[in-house]
Amino acid sequence: MLYYIIIFSLTFFGCITYDTNNNHKHGRRALKLLIFISLTLLIGLRYKVGGDSIAYEMIFEDAHSLKTWRYTWMHIYQPGFTFIEAIAKSISPQFYIFQIIHALIVNLALFIFINKNSRYFFISLLIIEFIVYLYFTTEILRETLAVLTFALSYPYYQKKKWGKYYLCVIIAMHFHISSIILAILPVFHNVTFNRRYIYYIIGIGLAIPLARPILSFIPFAGFIDKFDSYNGVFYGILFPFLSLLRGAIFPLFFCLFIKFGVKKHLKFENILCIMILFGIASAYNPLIYGRSLNFFYLFLALSVAEYIGDSYKIFKTKTAIHNSLIIMLILFCCYGANYIHIHKYIRWVPYSSILNPVDYERDHTKFIK
Q: How many CB atoms neighbour CB 209 within 10 A?
């Protein structure tokens, strides 16, 4: 737990020293580099931290090296991910080598995305660290690469450079097949918060039952079988509600507050509109539709950071600062509940490193009743 607190504290220090203060400039790059190295070591040198990481480690034992790697879509993992595995396996059969390579790729892409799209680097990173970072780097290792591919391709989406955008979609699909949903996003390119948005919400409600027959035409191995296995799970009431809370209720509250409450610019308005539609669908099936929300959380984090940073550096009124604190409190409550739900925090706490490996209980599913 101490390691998490140290990195969180370093990021918070960056928030109050640089993002909310106009007088400090020196040392900004050094602090970014320190956090980058710290995050990379934290994730790269972990030992059985994160539920899915344990499964990835077991499968890595049978991974090919570059000499025997073959491009195929018939493997349980997509070829882009198996290629990264092959690079790591060619260096060493130890799984921590793969973890370090994966952490380097993820952190580099994440830092580039934030640098290019936010004036408040540390606030953005702090929010990301809290709501999704551990989940992205220790659980959904393949999908995270796809998520960051989409994040870096956003300028092509925004400027309607569809050729380059769809090339990035294809690259993302080489990491995780769920990226296929990115192919339909251009259809919603002009969606904003206006009177017509209610029709999109109604349309999502009517379209959900049609998802299975449409997806049955996807030829990739095991795709529809996985859909059916997820679709058959009973979640109870709390699980879908928390998915709805994180994917639709909070984003909708934040967007309406910014656009119609304080009447400020809403960063990534179109992306957040699409996110809310998937968030509504996630109440129907949190694992299938809620999984798609992973592609949008980074944009939500930067949008929230934009308002918080502006409140301290541009607006500078008591009302704006008060509102920003309330939004942060609500955000931490909404997304913090995910760690408490069925004791999910045991996936990451206590932390264990390969330098001092300890086998802790990581199976939170035993708390499901």
A: 9
